[in-house]
Design a protein that fits this description.
Helix 1 crosses helix 2 and helix 10 runs parallel beside helix 11. The protein is built from twelve helices and eleven strands. The chain is an alpha+beta fold and 359 residues long. It has four domains: 103 residues, PriA, 3(prime) DNA-binding domain (GIY-YIG endonuclease); 64 residues; 67 residues; 74 residues, no CATH class. Strands 2-1-4-3-5 form a five-stranded antiparallel sheet. It has a three-stranded antiparallel sheet with strand order 7-6-8. A hairpin with a 2-residue loop joins strand 3 and strand 4. The two termini are 44 Å apart.
């Protein structure tokens, strides 16, 4: 087998500027099906573990002995090869490290990071005359596991490394879960054997919930809807679950914005000759994939948005996408409403008023 098939070029997420210096790592056989350009991975780096991003695969090795990739964090990758081309351009144009450009493009609150952890190894040979031993004994009283920031408040890096070399501390790494997780809806259904235990239920609200679910013939029902329709508290539902009468499952849900309804009828306006001319010119450039700049002059309400909409339709028709920049956040609901009338749920809105989860 060609050795190149097992080597990946990686940008490591370092807190310093490295002029996009890349490193090579061997791809273990068990991880090979999951690693491609854009994969987020964990790699060994000196005596640490760091997050890395795969920028190339199947490359020629620069050194005879390479370290192996430890794990893959996203499968399939969030970053596509096309996005990687954009990150290279951003890095070159703004003179910014490639890893920083990649992190900027990841959904806020979803950036992965590693945290150093230290475990105290209990021993019987602690000497009360040894300052470090007294420290270890004191730490053990407060718990056996410590994160780096907490431990650094009590001792220096030199002291920590000394204790590791003497076998009193063990360093490990934990993956910090993203701050933002998928929005999930709790769904409720009757347990398969609920009839055997339901006879023992005396609570009025619990019986009401069971009757409500029975009437829906075993379908999955949103827990919120069950509680609302039965005028019950969540504790009642939890009690039924603990008794094995109902089952919980979780369904991923898209975070929709409540202020983006398609609630208007678009007035079909006859385009003016000037609008027609502008649209013809812009469409011509889009079809030819020519990057040209056009300036539309007109007062508010003169029909510029109609030209934008027609241009976007042409872009989509040619397998392209479009970004519309709005000068004022207050205009967003009005404009979004118009665009959604034409493009439905293909419209995504991004502005500072969105929560991290919505972004």
């Amino acid at each position: 087998m060609d050795e190149r098939q097992n080597i990946a070029e990686v940008i490591v997420d370092l807190p310093i500027k490295t002029d996009n210096l890349s490193y090579q790592y061997l791809i273990p056989k068990k991880l090979k099906p999951y690693i491609t350009i854009g994969s987020t991975i964990i790699v060994p780096f000196t005596n640490r573990r760091l997050i890395g991003y795969v920028i190339k695969v199947n490359v020629v090795g620069r050194r005879p002995r390479l370290k192996e990739i430890i794990d893959v964090l996203d499968e399939p990758p969030v970053i596509s090869p096309k996005m990687m081309q954009l990150f290279y351009w951003m890095s070159d144009y703004y003179l910014s490290p490639l890893s920083e450009c990649i992190k900027l493009a990841l959904p806020p609150g979803r950036v992965r990071r590693l945290k150093e952890k230290y475990s105290i190894i209990p021993k019987d040979d602690y000497s009360q005359d040894d300052k470090q031993h007294r420290k270890i004994a004191g730490l053990l009283k407060a718990g056996s596991d410590w994160d780096k920031n907490r431990l650094m408040k009590l001792m220096t890096s030199k002291e920590i490394n000394d204790l590791i070399s003497r076998g009193y501390l063990r360093k490990s790494y934990a993956l910090v879960e993203p701050r933002i997780k998928k929005k999930q809806i709790k769904m409720v259904s009757l347990a398969s054997d609920y009839r055997e235990s339901s006879a023992k239920i005396n609570g009025k609200k619990q019986k009401m919930i069971l009757n409500y679910l029975t009437a829906r013939q075993g379908r999955l029902i949103d827990a919120g809807s069950v509680l609302k329709n039965c005028h019950a508290a969540s504790a009642t539902l939890k009690s039924l679950h603990s008794k094995g009468l109902v089952s919980f499952t979780y369904r991923d849900e898209q975070r929709y914005r409540v202020d983006l309804p398609i609630n208007r009828q678009e007035d079909i306006k006859k385009l003016t000759p000037f609008q027609d001319r502008a649209i013809v010119e812009i469409k011509k450039a889009i079809k030819a994939h020519r990057h040209l700049v056009y300036l539309l002059e007109g007062v508010t309400g003169s029909g510029k948005t109609e030209v934008y909409i027609e241009a976007i339709k042409e872009a989509i028709k040619n397998n392209l996408s479009a970004i519309v920049l709005v000068p004022e956040i207050a205009l967003t609901p009005q404009l979004t409403d118009r665009f959604r009338y034409h493009f439905n749920d293909e419209v995504a809105v991004l502005h500072s008023g969105l929560s991290l989860g919505e972004r």
